[in-house]
Write a structure and sequence with these properties.
Helix content: 40-55%
Order of helices and strands: EHEHEEEHEHEHHEEHHHHEHEH
Structural class: alpha/beta
Number of helices: 12
Radius of gyration: 21 Å
Shape: globular
Largest sheet: 7 strands, mixed
């Protein structure tokens, strides 16, 4: 099922559809959902009025890495059997921290053991390796492990149609009878949510995928984008080494996708914005794609100065 709208964020739309379908077609027996935190800020907005949110800690603030033991332990302590678990396919927002293939396998087993229904959100497929097959490993794993699951995909970034908004919600069901119930339910709520989806962006994506020359050109562009993102990550990391900024900054090149999760305090982030005019979220999330050869030194110096300044004095910025 494809959804597109100039007024609605289709990533939100497909995730929202999945939430309703999970609850109302028998996939989940409880109105609970497990979040691997930190996650995209809008996820909580989509679920907090309809579900009890159970947080699962995935982030290690010391290493800026993935905490598999914490994830498995939290799932075991709060199994909430029959509930959903929200997972991000790749290029995790906001941290850029993805599980390894072995870690995905452990997560899949834990979901199976505790009867959790995976809801996989994917807004950045292709932005890790420029290879859809490699980036979609978690999806193939869930399929091979026999899960019923939801896959919410946005084409806004990887097809460069941000202003058109195209997304897809795909559902893997255990049998044809359940698949038919899901299809009937979608037919019912589609009129309620957006009537009829606009066809232009869907036709655009279909044309690019089916035309060999256009598909090759698009994949070349996608590769150049992912290569550039890794290049500016490397340059920012090397700038931190050049400036001898205190701390280990290797995580900048280890994280993947559009974002990096800088180990900065909220006050340091505020100083970056108020004094350095380098804008990022107060959590430390910064968009690596905004870096280039001309500003990477400026950003690196700004980070260095706020890290080495123990007591910043500034006014809160208005942004």
């Amino acid at each position: 099922f494809f959804f597109s709208s100039r007024r609605r964020h289709t990533r939100s739309a497909s995730v929202s559809w999945a939430r309703r379908c999970v609850q109302e077609t028998g996939f989940a027996t409880r109105q609970k959902i497990l979040f691997l935190e930190p996650t995209w800020i809008n996820h909580s907005n989509l679920f907090n009025k309809n579900c009890d949110i159970i947080t699962v800690n995935m982030y290690d603030p010391v290493t800026n890495g993935f905490l598999l033991d914490s994830v498995l332990s939290d799932i075991k302590k709060n199994p909430a059997k029959g509930s959903m678990i929200l997972l991000q396919c790749c290029a995790q927002n906001p941290t850029g921290i993805d599980p390894t293939e072995k870690e995905w396998e452990a997560i899949s087993r834990a979901c199976k053991d505790h009867q959790l229904v995976p809801l996989v959100d994917s807004a950045y497929l292709g932005f890790v390796t420029a290879d859809f097959k490699k980036d979609s490993y978690p999806l193939r794993l869930l399929l091979e492990d026999g899960h019923e699951f939801f896959f919410c995909q946005s084409f806004s970034k990887n097809m460069a149609i941000y202003g058109e908004r195209l997304g897809a919600l795909q559902v893997v069901c255990k049998d044809k009878a359940k698949a038919k119930r899901v299809e009937n339910y979608f037919a019912t709520i589609s009129r309620e949510i957006n009537g009829y989806a606009g066809s232009y962006p869907a036709r655009l994506v279909n044309t690019v995928w089916k035309n060999e020359a256009l598909n090759k050109s698009w994949l070349t562009d996608l590769t150049s984008i992912t290569d550039r993102i890794f290049t500016v990550r490397r340059k920012l990391y090397e700038k931190m080494l050049e400036l001898k900024t205190p701390g280990n900054w290797e995580y900048i090149v280890n994280q993947r996708g559009l974002f990096t999760y800088l180990k900065l305090s909220e006050k340091q982030c505020e100083e970056m914005m108020a004094k350095k005019h380098v804008y990022l979220l107060h959590s430390g999330r910064a968009c690596v794609a905004g870096l280039n050869n001309y500003n990477v030194d400026i950003v690196g110096k700004a980070i260095h100065e706020v890290v080495t300044n123990p007591q910043p004095q500034f006014a809160n910025p208005t942004i």
